[in-house]
Amino acid sequence: MNAAPELLLIGAAVVxxxxxxxxxxxxxxxxxxxxxxxAAGPRDEHRALTGVAGRLxxxxxxxxxxxxxxVAATFAAYLVAKTGPLTLWGGVLYVAGRAVYVPLYALxxxxxxxxxWFVSMAGIVMIVAAxxxx
Length: 134
Known about the structure:
By secondary structure, this protein is mostly helical. It has a single domain (5-133), classed as Up-down Bundle (Four Helix Bundle (Hemerythrin (Met), subunit A)). Helices cover 78% and strands 0% of the residues. It is built from five helices and no strands. Helix 1 (5-30) packs parallel to helix 4 (85-106) and helix 3 runs antiparallel to helix 4 (85-106). The longest helix is centred in the middle third of the chain and has 29 residues, at 51-79. The radius of gyration is 17 Å and the shape is elongated. The chain starts with a helix and ends with a helix. The model has no long low-confidence stretch (mean pLDDT 91).
């Protein structure tokens, strides 16, 4: 049995999230305020990240905010048999937008980064629209 392409896109989004988590974690550990000794401890005090490490951390937190909506919308569309071009392209836009968003944020690119975020959100909106329109 072949998996629906939309479900494969959830897998692709998971890969984007894991890469983003690892990149943010590595950058945080290289940050002078959050070394390996701090990471191995109880982390009772909050240490703010700055620079690239801070941007990668914020980008990962942003991924955590949008990913549940993407998964829920995709599964809902799949379960009610409303998949098709709108859900497929919506999933592609979400994954591509999220994949591009991270390096843009890390590099401090503002306008294009916001556009990448809008592209990923448009992908989610397309999937939700397919549930009600298709």
